[in-house]
Design brief:
It is built from ten helices and 13 strands. By secondary structure, it is α+β, with helices and mostly antiparallel strands. It folds into two domains: about 260 residues, BirA Bifunctional Protein, domain 2; about 45 residues, no CATH class. The strands form three sheets. The protein has an eight-stranded mixed sheet, sandwiched between helices. A three-stranded antiparallel sheet has the order 2-4-3. Helix 6 links the parallel strand 8 and strand 9. The longest helix has 20 residues.
């Protein structure tokens, strides 16, 4: 993913695991997402929260300097660890966990650049799916409820702009999309790429969303085309959020279903041990050279004992 980020014009960034609670208030997360955030902690003279998302950190990196519209789009990518308070009854293996690492990207762009950037994100996501052998996937466009419930941020014209851009992007790629009303995230519409045969897939390989209000909230500005380069404008860029592969934990779980991992143990008499050990060492070295984590059990023990010991270790793949 790091190599792909760089290849596709992203800058790799890293954001703190703990941030001031005031920042989460400004971004809107405490207002909409507080029940899924861990309780605050008092440090020095302020309250801090573990980050459930990387969005505010990326926005602060973007707004660190005044940018010209000529610099857009600005693409920031991070393989960041986030923390979310999942209730004990909702946690499930590697699918629902309280701490996980996900690829997380934000693209700051002008309204007329949105559609092309969404297309690029979708192509990125599809490349990820194909790399892992998934040729069949479903597309869903989750929309808002036209402001009826009051639970969504943003104005009607921005929602219309975002939803139309997502739909046009999927049409350009020839994707069949099912529209799911009132299932957008609280802050943005989503165009989801899922890899699974289930009626309601659980693993999202890609989430694309358009957020206009968030950069504006933290005063991320761009210079106007009509003003001098030294002066700031009143304009605010849009922010496209994308997770082209989702969390590494979910991917590990997904890959284990169609491609189960196996652990092999060999037992032999003492006379054959050294001969088989040489072969086992060669396999171990080849696995390590290919980038796999491998351990060699070279004890002179029976195979049943080695299998039992391996099971008791409860080794995770993530």
């Amino acid at each position: 993913m790091r190599d792909q980020y760089l290849k596709r014009g992203y800058s790799l960034v890293y954001t703190p695991h703990v941030m001031r609670a005031d920042l989460w208030k400004v971004s809107g997360h405490l207002g909409h997402y507080a029940e899924n955030m861990f309780a605050g902690m008092e440090l020095d003279d302020a309250e801090y929260r573990l980050k459930p998302m990387n969005c505010p950190g990326h926005i602060l990196i973007y707004r660190d300097k005044l940018r010209s519209y000529r610099e857009l789009p600005v693409r920031l990518g991070e393989l960041g660890t986030v923390y979310r308070y999942e209730r004990s009854g909702t946690m499930h293996g590697l699918m629902r966990v309280r701490g996980f690492t996900q690829d997380d990207a934000h693209i700051f762009c002008t309204p007329d650049q949105i559609e092309d950037e969404v297309v690029s994100c979708l192509e990125f996501a599809i490349d990820v799916l194909k790399t892992f052998g998934f040729e069949k996937y479903e597309a869903e466009l989750s929309t808002w409820d036209n402001g009826v419930s009051g639970k969504y941020d943003g104005t009607a014209d921005l929602w219309e702009l975002a939803e139309k851009a997502l739909m046009r992007a999927t049409e350009r790629l020839g994707l069949k999309v099912a529209t799911i009303p009132d299932e957008a995230a609280l802050l943005w519409p989503q165009d989801r790429r899922e890899a699974s045969g289930r009626a309601r897939p659980q693993v999202a390989a890609f989430h694309g969303s358009i957020r206009f209000h968030a950069p504006e909230t933290v005063r991320a500005r761009i210079r106007s085309r009509r003003r001098q380069a030294s002066s700031a404008s009143d304009g605010s860029p849009g922010a496209l959020w994308a997770a082209s592969s989702g969390s590494s934990a979910s991917w590990s779980n997904t890959m284990r279903e169609p491609f189960p991992l196996a652990r092999a143990c060999a037992g032999s008499s003492d006379a054959d041990h050294d001969r088989q050990l040489d072969y086992a060492k060669s396999v171990h070295e080849k696995l390590e050279a290919a980038g796999f984590r491998s351990q060699l059990d070279d004890r002179k023990e029976k195979v049943n004992l080695k299998i039992r010991d391996a099971q008791l270790q409860k080794v995770r793949t993530c």
